[in-house]
Structures are given as C-alpha cells and as structure tokens.
Amino acid sequence: MRMKFVMLLTGMLSAIHLAGCSLPSSLKYRSSSEMSRISTGMSQEQVVAILGIPASKTSSSGLECLQFSLAEPSRTYPGSYGVYFDRNQRVAEFDSNICQSIRLDALAKRRNG
Prior knowledge:
Beta-lactamase Inhibitory Protein, Chain:B, domain 1, 4-stranded antiparallel sheet, 4 helices
C-alpha cells in the first residue's frame, strides 16, 4: 500500500514538473523598454515581433486587442498592457489596461464615424 502511494506521488510530481518546464511563451513577461517601442500605426506582426506571443486576445466589432503582461511594473506601465488594432491590423491605440470588448466596440464606432 505504501509503495503504491509513493509511486502515485512520484508520478504526480513528475507531471507537475514537466508541465512547469513546458510553459507556453505567452506566459513570459515583457519589460517596460519593450512596451515603450510600440506606437500607433504599427502592424500586428511588428508588435508580436517586439513583444512575442500575447497572454490573451480579445475580439469584438471586427477589431482585436492583444494583452501583454510586464515583469517590472512601473508608473508608466503598471502590469498589464493592451494593444488595440483596427480592421487593417494596425495599432489604433494602446495603454496600461486590460483588453475590453466594450472598448473595442467604442473604438469601432469612432472609426466608422
């Protein structure tokens, strides 16, 4: 009985260890200097080349927002960073807030007149 428990425990710990070793790159944190390189008009490909795979992606009204996380939050970049893209997949705006569908909808309305 004790041997089965030890084997089960060893198997569980091994699985946890392997899962930790294979974290997706989307869970990597970005630095403030990387975030400061983002500007309006950049393509989505340019943003991903600088910041890597986003932690999450939100879509609404035909627009998208990519969410990134910072390793070293600062006053300018406090933790989360949302990059909003227009229909041409160009940066429309960005800030230090989480991506929100309601904001995408408002951005779409402003862009449509």
